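Feature request, filed as a ticket because there's no other form

It would be nice if the structure record came with a short human-readable summary line next to the tokens. Right now we just get the raw output. Example of a typical job, pasted below so the devs can see what we mean:
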Amino acid sequence: MSLSHSVIERLRSILGSDHVLTAREDLISYSFDGTAALQQLPGVVVLARSTADVVAVLKLATETKTPVVTRGSGTGLSGGSLPSADCIVLCLVKLDRILEVDAANLTLMTESGVTTIQIAEAAAAAGLFYPPDPGSMKISTIGGNVAENSGGLRGLKYGITRNYVMGLEVVLPDGEVLWTGNKCVKDVAGYSLRDLFIGSEGTLGVITRVLLKLLPKPAAKKTLVATYDQMDRAAQTVSDIIAAKIIPCTLEFLDRTTVRCVEDFAKVGLPVDCEAVLLMETDGHPAAVAEEASLMEALARRNGAIEVRVARDEAEANRLAAARRSAFSALARVAPTTILEDATVPRSELARMIRFVEGIARKYSLRIGTFGHMGDGNLHPTFLTDERNKEEMARVHHAFQEIFDEAIRLGGTITGEHGIGVAKKDFLPKFAGDASMRVMRELRRALDPQGILNPGKMFD
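Raw output as currently delivered:
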């Protein structure tokens, strides 16, 4: 049944006609996110401009039992913001104000529609540092980062989004506004409700404001790139770096397929005849940075690196980091459909997992480029395929199943930073187990008894 005319008219009276979209050509832009091969037209799109707007929309949705899918920039990679049929898409990109940068308490208060790069730049302007850096940081919104608990290249040393959220304003499904958290470094009063909403993928409430922790800006940084003829040697370099009690801010890898695509795309001088490239970056006090960079170079050479290149200056370092960030875009030029996947294993199992993915590519006659965060065991097997080829897509699905099964077998997880959404909900029960699934379902029913928030995501 299509969304009723009366609901749309009431939305117009709440938000104004200019902020309620119903024309098909407008709805198409909101019918998909960054996940390949998934699309569904919503019933209506509303553009909230304030927490009060969100409250009013959710009260109406609860009254009329209308499903609501919250959305930021739509960069998610698990179908988390994919509309359900005849739903209200609640878009928050117009909640776009940074409300406060508090240098005394090292915090930043922001509305949820502000982009990650804007937050990083606002922190930098105050001489501070916001570490989480998802690959989509130039366009992803902080509300989406929190809802998906996004990671990034600096996760090894600095952690993920969860580690920087100090407080949240959340609108519950019935329109009640909840604030959890504060600027205190220590606070152990009651349940950690803040953590309940981080990574909840829009299924428990709508995040409208975020209080973030900032850090002092590192005084120095040095970037190195090492190339190898074997992935195992790159992996051993990482193990040796950690064993030497060095925690770099970045330890990234690219396999042969990805290196070739990135060099063709970015042209930064990466060698295309190697099996693996390792991007290493250390930051902190200048003396410590110099010492750590020198030791990492020595360890890379000891493990048989073909070449170790040290960035001459910040401009070259930024080009090398940008090349790594372009991996998805570079691979996406190769085939009509690019499916970027996400699995994490203990660091000690990463080389084995990469070899397993290579074997899966051969077994199912698929082209897969793999890159990711070698320092924290998070890899991104990227399938270069064509969603119009049903037989090939069936092989892709079987390959997914085997990759996730192997990640679990090795003590890993089915997602390190992309979330569950629609794409991985079939794999969640095997990973989480019966007790965890029961608790998650009961929490969801308690907060959203009518099931109107992001239905069909994470689990049915």
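Something like this underneath would help us a lot:
The radius of gyration is 22 Å.
The mean pLDDT is 95.
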